[in-house]
Amino acid sequence: MNHKKLICILLITLPIQIYYQALASASLKFELGNQFRSKNDSMLLYGLTEAEYAPIKAAVRIFAENPRYKLSLRELTFSNNSEFLNVDIGFMHVAWGETFGFNIVDLINPRDYSDPLFLESIWVKLPVFALNMKYISGSLTIQGIVIPVPRHNILPETDLPVDLRDFNIEDIGHDSEVGAKINYLFDSGLDLGFIYFYHWNRNIVLELKQDRRLNLIEDRIHSLGVTASHLAGNYVFRADSIMHIDQPAQVGFGFQHGTNWQTILGADTTSETQWTLGAQYHMDRSVTDTFHWTSVRLRKPFFSEAIVVETFLFRGLNNKDTWLQPQLTWNISASTSLIARLDLLVAGDAGILPSFKDSDRAFAWFSYKF
User: Fold this and answer.
1) What is the dihedral of CA 285, 251, 110, 350, to 10 degrees?
2) What is the pLDDT of residues 274-315, one digit of tens each?
3) How far apart are CA 114 and CA 120, in angstroms?
4) What sign does the dihedral 82-84-90-94 (CA atoms) show?
5) For residue range 52-78, what is the model confidence (pLDDT) as tens digits?
């Protein structure tokens, strides 16, 4: 008889926000975040099948065995806005996607992969120092972004040393990342956007070397994408699609280059009684496999948003991935909230969840905003 492990995690976050507007057109935003994370067991490496993971099982862990405390700068930006041009400079987050859950086109910010089941963008996305310019003329918006010094993902914790590329200020222009997005809002209500980003690959690809060191594969790639949303009555239709050209992908102990195409299509609606229902189709085509999934999210607030009940279901169509996530949020006050969540996981040998099929998870998150 197979027994599954229950992993319990406590996360406490204490964000501090300061907003100062010196002039009608200029402002400064500052945010710090504290995290305390505790757990009682280890998990496997996200993205590898059980067979691929087994030879390096002793080498790679997702979480440390001890509690962790982290203070991080979440945002520090100076903004100057005029009638047609908005300019932000500093440490920031940039959102490009329209769909919920998996933000496949939000490429500007690297990710914190210390917990692959934790999808809250406010904490998962790592701020980058960037110049972000938006030109707005009627229904047309043109956005350009320059990241002079790239930033690494926060990787899963390992027992083996990981060799990383050095990004530093001396290599500005050589290692810099650049991107652009063009949006147009049609009279019909269709908001259509086109994305281009020249960047270092955001996916984690590790190569096990003969000296038992892990080498993080980092290559510059071109990414092309489309985003769209359309309001039709009580329904909002959404779409995100992105193509990573010549991106490295994990294949056993090594890697292989090829085009990775990801797409999410979905719709959501909110009833007069504040029930919100969203459904999405997911597709991921890599150099080795093509996977399809569907997801559903149901949300209902009670007592003027004091209590919020949510359920998220992610289910594979040509694989056995199943992820059920019921969640209860108690907004104690305007600055204090408590979230209780359960992650129930089922998987086969293919898909993106095989490494978690022997574990379920209980998760509690307390947040106080100063």
Assistant:
1) 50
2) 999 999 999 999 988 999 999 999 999 999 999 999 999 999
3) 13
4) positive
5) 444 444 443 333 334 455 666 778 888
Contact 349, 53 (CB under 8 A): no
Query: Could you report the per-residue pLDDT of 133-171, keeping only the tens digit for each?
Result: 999 999 999 999 999 999 988 887 666 678 878 887 777
**Residues 56/57/59/63 CA torsion (nearest 10 deg):** 140
Cβ neighbours, 10 Å, residue 49: 18
Give residue for tokens 């987050």. Answer: 93
Tokens of 78: 């100076």
Give 89-112 pLDDT, tens digit per residue: 999 999 999 998 788 999 999 988
Using a 10 angstrom Cβ sphere, with 0-12 exposed, 13-18 middle and 19 or more buried, the burial of residue 225 is buried
Query: Rounded to 10 degrees, what is the CA torsion of 40, 309, 315, 55?
Result: -10
**pLDDT band of 256, cuts 50, 70, 90:** very high
Q: Judge contact between 215 and 250, C-beta under 8 A.
A: no
Question: Which helix (H) or strand (E) is 291 found in, with range?
Answer: strand 290-302
Reading the block at residue 209, the tokens are 């070397």
Non-local (6+) Cβ contacts of 80 within 8 A are 25, 26, 86, 87
pTM metric for this prediction: 0.84
What is the Cα–Cα distance from 206 to 158, expressed in whole angstroms?
11
CA distance 81 to 96: 20
Measured CA distances, 341 to 8, 11, 116, 346, 358 (Å): 10, 11, 15, 17, 18
Number of other CB atoms surrounding residue 315 within 10 Å: 16
SS3 208: strand
Return the C-alpha torsion angle 239, 243, 249, 251, nearest 10. Answer: 70
Please name which of 314, 287, 192, 190 lies closest in space to residue 241, comparing C-alpha atoms. 192
Largest CA distance in the chain: 67
* Contact status, residue 192 vs residue 184, Cβ threshold 8 Å: yes
